[in-house]
Design a protein that fits this description.
The complex is a heterodimer of chains A (300) and B (195).
Chain A lengths: L2 H9 L4 H22 L9 H10 L8 H24 L12 H22 L3 H32 L3 H6 L3 H18 L24 H25 L7 H25 L5 H26 L1
Chain B lengths: L2 H12 L2 E6 L5 H8 L13 E2 L8 E5 L4 H13 L5 E5 L1 H5 L21 E3 L6 H16 L53
Parallel strand pairs in B: 1-2, 1-3, 3-4, 4-5
Helix pairs in contact in B: 1-5
The chains are: A mainly alpha (300), B alpha/beta (195).
Chain lengths: 300, 195
């Protein structure tokens, strides 16, 4: 890969120039679909952008310097890691990556939720800690099918993103992608797995104590998580090698389709309790991912 | 005005997040506030979000006559909100004490505890009046409308000496600069500022 390609990936597509507007766009689309399904008109198109700008321009309430530093660094880390995960996605056909980049991608995707758990505890709020403990339990539970699905794909293709995105048995791919897809609502704090944030029920959960620019960073990180996770599913669901513009079109279209699907599921379902949510992943989700892994083992 | 300042101003006008604090309300106003979020009024069209934490909010919506038990909590919540912020008194209770005026358990009206920017009169007020008030609050946040003059200062954590005594919080005692809570009882919003 040349320096030119790397620069394009970092700054243009799927990096900054695409990821940041897409983060706002996907957040808006989710809210809009949710509103339309509830019989409302919903927010105007630039709403998430205005939300972030407004928060960034607020004057946060002063805190002790150490706590303020930690509470600032955590969302900065989440934004950086999620953006790096998006850049790693093999959208353009010329990108072949490097051995083991699938492991790096999964690790970067997990950095955001882990920092979110730390953020709740670091805020020294009862509600933040409660949200963090719920998020930690759900992270362990949903990573069982998520990582098993990824390992099933890797078993068939190796731990290279490019190989996973372009080859391997179709049956393994379908089962693994479904298993990964079922984990997305919990990663994005959507119904029916929104127990970690549980707005109004535990105030604002992990983000209860975050205000102003720090909250703006969390909002941005959350939008970028939408782009990274829907992009991952889009990449895995389109194992075809075509001209670069078809890849870009398919990537964006499939990402939007996944956003729509998640929004519909979120609007149509109620919130599970922590025990119910955990069981969904440790029993059904894990069973699905294990089937994919079994097929991959049998096929290899 | 610079480009960034203009952007911030637009963002503040188009993204007013509210936090609702009940200070002893009968729940009538609370139900009308929730009605604003429903499909009939859909206040999210204005970018409004009902937040679970005061630290996220721009507008503090207070219902109820401000009881002794909730007075300190209100001050804490107000202090937790980052600037710029607006206080909106929802209904007749925070404006005048309403039927609770004179009760020894009541510290209000609200302007004795917090600097009130907007009043939405009514018992309870109609949802469309609440939506209009939130839009007005967003205009104050953006600097499109002047903020009412500062009320008399009350030290944080203290209860006004006359609070809770019979005869306080009588209707029609709106203080200069915070708008007359009795004005426009039928859905108008008073800011105390010239229009």
């Amino acid at each position: 890969m040349t320096a030119w390609q790397t620069t394009v990936r970092l700054l243009a597509f799927p990096g900054l120039l695409y990821a940041v507007p897409a983060a706002f766009w996907f957040s808006w689309l989710h809210r809009k679909i949710n509103a339309r399904l509830q019989g409302r008109i919903g927010p105007p198109p630039f709403q998430p952008f205005f939300d972030v700008v407004k928060l960034a321009a607020k004057r946060p309430v002063p805190r002790p310097p150490g706590q303020a530093l930690v509470m600032t660094l955590l969302p900065v880390g989440a934004v950086t890691a999620t953006l790096a995960a998006i850049v790693l996605l093999p959208v353009l056909p010329g990108w072949t990556g490097f051995p083991g980049d699938l492991i790096l991608l999964v690790a970067l995707i997990e950095v955001g939720p882990v920092l979110g758990v730390l953020a709740g505890y670091a805020s020294r709020s009862l509600w933040g800690a409660l949200g963090s403990s719920r998020e930690a339990v759900l992270t362990v539970a949903h990573n069982l099918p998520f990582l098993t699905g990824v390992v099933a794909l890797a078993q068939a293709n190796g731990f290279s993103l490019h190989a996973v995105a372009t080859g391997g048995p179709l049956a393994v791919r379908i089962l693994a992608v479904i298993a990964i897809l079922t984990c997305l609502p919990v990663k994005l704090h959507l119904n029916p797995f929104s127990v970690a944030t549980a707005e109004q029920e535990i105030y604002a959960g992990i983000g209860t104590e975050y205000d102003g620019p720090r909250l703006a960073l969390w909002e941005l990180a959350h939008g970028l998580e939408w782009v990274a996770l829907t992009g991952l599913v889009a990449v895995l669901a389109f194992p075809v090698t075509l001209a670069w513009y078809w890849h870009v079109l398919a990537f964006v279209t499939l990402s939007l389709a996944v956003v729509g699907l998640l929004a519909v599921v979120a609007a149509a379902t109620a919130r599970f309790t922590l025990g119910q949510a955990t069981r969904q992943f440790t029993v059904w989700g894990f069973g699905l991912a294990l089937s994919a892994f079994g097929l991959a083992l049998a096929g290899s | 005005m610079g480009l960034f300042a203009a952007l911030v101003r637009t963002a503040r006008r188009r993204s007013p997040w509210i936090f609702h604090a009940n200070s002893g309300s009968c729940n009538g106003c609370d139900i009308e506030l929730l009605a604003c979020l429903t499909p009939r009024f859909d206040v999210e069209q204005l970018g409004v979000r009902n937040e679970g934490s005061p630290r996220h909010a721009d507008i503090l919506v207070v219902s109820g006559p401000v009881t002794r038990n909730t007075c300190e909590a209100l001050e804490t919540v107000y202090a937790q909100m980052p600037d710029p912020k607006v206080v909106l008194a929802l209904g007749s209770c925070p404006a005048t004490g309403n039927v609770f005026a004179g009760s020894p358990a009541v510290v209000g009206p609200l302007h004795r505890v917090l600097p009130v920017d907007l009043y939405v009169p009514g018992c309870p007020p109609r949802p469309d009046a609440i939506v209009a008030a939130v839009a007005e609050a967003a205009a104050i946040l953006a600097g499109d409308r002047p903020r009412p003059a500062e009320p008399e200062a009350v030290p944080p954590g203290t209860v006004p000496p006359e609070a809770g005594q019979p005869g306080t919080g009588q209707p029609g005692t709106g203080r200069p600069g915070t708008g007359n809570p009795e004005a426009g009882r039928h859905g108008d919003i008073t800011t105390g500022a010239p229009r």
